[in-house]
Specification:
Elements: E1 2-7, E2 10-15, E3 27-28, H1 39-45, H2 62-82, E4 89-92, H3 95-109, E5 116-120, H4 125-136, E6 140-144, H5 154-160, E7 169-173, H6 187-197, E8 200-204, E9 223-227, E10 238-242, H7 271-309, E11 313-315, E12 326-331, H8 336-342, E13 346-347, E14 349-350, E15 352-354, E16 359-361, H9 363-367, H10 372-376, E17 378-382, H11 389-408, H12 411-417
Parallel strand pairs: 3-13, 5-6, 5-7, 7-8, 8-9
Antiparallel strand pairs: 1-2, 4-10, 9-10, 11-12, 12-17, 14-17, 15-16
Helix pairs in contact: 1-7, 2-7, 3-4, 7-11
Amino acid sequence: MSNEMSNNGMVITQSATPLPEGVHLPIYMDNHATTPMDPRVLEAMLPYFGAKFGNAASRNHAFGWEAEQAVETAREQIAKLIGATAKEIIFTSGATESNNLAIKGIAEMYRERGNHIITQVTEHKAVLDTCKKLEKQGYRVTYLPVKADGLIDLDELRNAMVTEGPEKTILVSIMYANNEIGVVQPVAEIGKLCHEKGVLFHTDAVQAVGKIPVNVQTDNIDVLSLSGHKVYGPKGVGALYVRRRNPRVQISEQINGGGHERGMRSGTLNVPGIVGLGAACEIARNEMDAEAKRETELRDYLKHKLESALDYVHVNGNMEHHLPGNLNMSFVYVEGESLLMGINDVAVSSGSACTSATLEPSYVLKALGLGDDVAHSSIRFGLGRFNTKAEVDYVADKIIDVVKKLRELSPLYEMVKEGIDLSTVEWAAH
Ligand SMILES: *Cc1c(COP(=O)(O)O)cnc(C)c1O
């Protein structure tokens, strides 16, 4: 039941039942798209928007030294979280730029060694579109498929590697954890294989860093992308780890200018953003273990609650090799977009990308071999640092309620319940 109130001409629909304690609407549960800034991160950043405004490249006065000191502290904080050294951290405007810099920078630098790059189909667009661009410039790119659980097959990777000749493989770029289905790739094994074959290994670790243990040494990673706003830090700042020893990786700069960041990325540094990214990494390092445990429990609780109340639900992606806060679930016979509209006070994502002309299901879900119906009915829950059990209960109850209502209106669901095999039905053509 709901009653409508008029407030400054705006009609507000208010639920008649009071909200559970600790639940404030709207609820944010889309932490793979972005994370809210941790208040401690904001606090660390604020002085650098004010009195501490210096340019970190100003070498001859205290304003510059102060900014440079703050940047070097952040470099250490980031390096420590991933088992790197401070000198191996290059600041960028975010992970899209980091991915571009890594892939284009290596392709250009090692062009004489070979022209082959290997990636896989469920990468972020920042990797896939970069690879497509390189294909236009004459590079050969292999896009490995994934298995039904979202993991790549290591044998297929091994077989795809070219070790001699002009088509030699120079780079493998495989993400650490997927942003839609939360699946964690066997990164340490991939890196080991690359090192055995003398191929550089880049990983887009945006969703993994700060959420699960990432270590560039034990994971055999040569180049790694990360982003501020996915780890409770600010938007518009990211970093690229570039290995300095065994092997020393060289990257051709993609932005020319003052030669900042060891010549790999010119441009005046975003000092407040960098301070924020550093603070976010420090917090993650201290709190990651406890946070991962808490989020995994919440995630499993949500999954169990939905599975107990609803039939025809389908969990997408391998749940063993998985991010703590991710749950991607299909509610078959329900349109994801309709479901989202029914829970409009909850921020989650659906597996359909609404474009002007078509409603295309997510390419990640399609890559798992899911039918359009299952892909279209998927919802991505992204639990994060600030989500509570009370919120999970509210969201689960709401989803259960809306899915049941939508299915009451679904002729397909009715037919399935009556035992009709939908694959045998001949649909009239329109
Ligand atoms: C968000 C995201 C990116 C892009 O990062 P930005 O900092 O927003 O440019 C790249 N890869 C993955 C896996 C992501 O989730």
